Fold this sequence. Notes:
The protein is α/β, with parallel strands linked by helices. It has one domain: P-loop containing nucleotide triphosphate hydrolases (Rossmann fold), CATH 3.40.50. The chain is built from 7 helices and 7 strands. Helix 6 (153-160) links the parallel strand 6 and strand 7.
Amino acid sequence: MFYSPGKRLGIFRAAIWGISKCGKTETLKGLVSQLPPQITRGNWLDYDVLSERDKDLLLEYVPVRLGQVKGTDLMIELFAPHPDQAVSKTWLQLVIDADGIIIAVDSQTSRLSENIYSLRSLKELLASANKSLMRMPVVCQFNKKDLPDALPFEVLERAIDLRTAPVFETVASQKLGLIDVVQALSKLLVRAL
């Protein structure tokens, strides 16, 4: 967490981790459209006007103001890799340095093995920095629950096996369940603080 005593501002950083096209971008877009502008500060980058070189340097980013705790303004910065961007060193370092993680799982039957492999990769990445999912604030979203081939909650929960992490069913394209995910992560981050 970044803390500025002079400004009485604390900033948590959270990464959204998941396989390609699992709904990371739609989650951020959905949050920006659902939350009041003063909470997100209206921040959403227009990636269509950026050059290809600049896209490689940027991550998708949404700041969310959480309010005050003991006279300190708290904010959570949510990051996800840009869809056009391959996994970069910048993104991997951001995940390692994150205060919390949202794991976005694509609920489609055909994507289960990719989700499991992605979660294993995340655990290995964190282990390389002596970190563990079990020791940090983590929330999981089972996304795309509106699709006909979406796996049942119990099957996904058993396969993903995050034990005590809160899990929510979401449909990011319809903005369903997204605020619940961020609220749960925010509570975990504040509690860890």
